[in-house]
Amino acid sequence: MKRIAWDQFFMAQSHLISTRSTCTRLMVGATIVRDKRMIASGYNGSIAGGDHCTEKGCFVVEGHCIRTIHAEMNALLQCAKFGASTDQAELYVTHFPCVACCKSIIQAGIKTVYYAKDYKNHPYAIQLFEQAGVEVKKVPFDHEILNEDSLSKQMTMDTIKAAVEAENLPDETSTRLLESIQSKLI
Ligand SMILES: [Zn+2]
Ligand SMILES: [Zn+2]
């Protein structure tokens, strides 16, 4: 059985938490991971108990909504609140971090940032990450991995493939057989 890769798994988590966002301008989700364990996650939203952009509209000052705390900051603050070390941890985020979050991420000791989508990637943030030795990797999120139908088809195909290969048929026959099965499955 083919299992989902770790980077896609944590990126899926960040996309899932982004659906809790209360700012209509952009829905962002972030997950902090240490030793393949999720230690915190966050989405962009108002402070606890505050007004939500979804109800009161965004509070825009100089082109930015200042009502919300960014997803990356919320994830880091969750660690601060509940006492989990972020040193040498990894951060998975749906969008490239802004300059303010970039500085907090570096200062919190995060060693790797995985992001799914480019978003106004600021040259200063890129420069700061580089100088701090924080590795930044783009991991586009494949939404298909959450599609149970396509997952089960993939698993069926893997099983059939293993069975056909075990028969030690001539290569040409195996290929033809697998192609024919695959076309019927889709
Ligand atoms: Zn807003
Ligand atoms: Zn930010």
TrEMBL record:
Keyword Transcription listed? The answer is no
Name the InterPro entries on file.
APOBEC/CMP_deaminase_Zn-bd (IPR016192), CMP_dCMP_dom (IPR002125), Competence_ComEB (IPR013404), Cytidine_deaminase-like (IPR016193), dCMP_deaminase-rel (IPR015517), Deoxycytidylate_deaminase_dom (IPR035105)
Report the PROSITE patterns cross-referenced here.
CYT_DCMP_DEAMINASES_1, CYT_DCMP_DEAMINASES_2
Location of the CMP/dCMP-type deaminase domain: 5-132
Q: What cofactors does this protein use?
A: Zn(2+)
Pfam families this protein is in? Answer: dCMP_cyt_deam_1
Q: Which UniProt keywords apply?
A: Hydrolase, Metal-binding, Zinc
Q: Does the keyword Amino-acid biosynthesis apply?
A: no
Q: Which residues form a coiled coil?
A: none
Membership in a protein family: Belongs to the cytidine and deoxycytidylate deaminase family.
Q: Name the chain's protein.
A: ComE operon protein 2
Q: What is the lineage of its organism?
A: Bacteria, Bacillati, Bacillota, Bacilli, Bacillales
